[in-house]
Amino acid sequence: MSIINRNKFMVNLKKIAVIVMTLAIVFVMTDMSGFKASALTSSKAAVPKFAAEKTYESSYTHPYNKQIDTITLHWGKTKGANRYQVYIKGGNYKSWTRYCTTTNNVVSVKKLSRATEYKFKVRAIYSGNTYSSFSPVQTIRTARMNYDKAGWEAMCRIVYHEVGRINDSMWDKPIVYVSDCVVNRFVSAKYCNDPLWTPFYKNYSNIQSIIYQSGGFMSDYGLTRDGCKYSNVADKCKVAVWGAVYGTTSYKGIKNDYSVYYWCNRSYYTNSSKIAYSFKIPWGYFSIWRTYWG
């Protein structure tokens, strides 16, 4: 090959190399452009909406015996969406983190921390990798303790009994603090290894056994005899128990107190800081109680 032909060959080779590089760059830019487009939201894309949290008398949001580490999310399917992305923040998730991508509209978020508040948001993905905006944020707490349906009913029944089956507003605070008392003993024994309560309750596997069988509360028979069936329990007792279990202000702005472990029906003052209320249970015509903080 002559020098002239060789030079022409090299020039053509360089031109081919430039064309190849240009095509490669165009391909990469197109691919990146497509990727960026997939991460962009469309104002026309329907946004999924979370179903409301269900609290007591349901395992819809908080599965029985998994309340300390699992939350089940539900949202309405949006027409045309083929996937959903769920994001979480709270506990060990210090910033918004994608928890999963799913084709379902129900997700059980697991391995959460006990008694912790979490925030969730979800968005839909449509064909062509078009994303919807995020849903409004839903905030849900995990429980301080696990329980099943029987355990829930036992807690509500004993609270209803200890305030004398009264549903008057003057009993709102006692209802809240008796709820705290019942829950605090179990939480201290089962989750906090409290030296006072753990030895006493270590042989009981669930809250209903502690209430019905330990002797520290009242039996199933006794509650039934006194008219404290679950079907009779006042709704405010259920709300108060929910507040004690989930660590929320439970009723009419009354804050839960996690230092309360006792209550009594004595009408005189005591020097124990563990007794929140000293009152006469209003059987018959009695309706006397007074606040006491040790």
Short recap of the structure:
The protein is built from seven helices and ten strands. The protein is an alpha+beta fold and 294 residues long.
Key features?
294 residues; alpha+beta; Immunoglobulin-like; 2 domains; three-stranded mixed β-sheet; 7 helices; 10 strands; 33% helix; disordered C terminus
Structure notes:
The chain has helices at residues 3-38, 149-162, 172-190, 198-201, 207-213, 220-225, 235-246, and strands at residues 71-74, 83-90, 93-102, 106-109, 117-126, 130-131, 138-141, 262-264, 275-279, 289-291. By secondary structure, the chain is α+β, with helices and mostly antiparallel strands. It has two domains: 49-142, Sandwich (Immunoglobulin-like); 149-286, no CATH class. The strands form three sheets. Strands 2, 3, 5, 6 and 7 form a five-stranded antiparallel sheet that branches. A three-stranded mixed sheet has the order 8-9-10, with helices on one face. Helix 3 runs parallel beside helix 7 (235-246). The longest helix is centred in the N-terminal third of the chain and has 36 residues, at 3-38. The chain is elongated and about 110 Å long. The model is unreliable at 22-38 and 278-294 (pLDDT under 50).
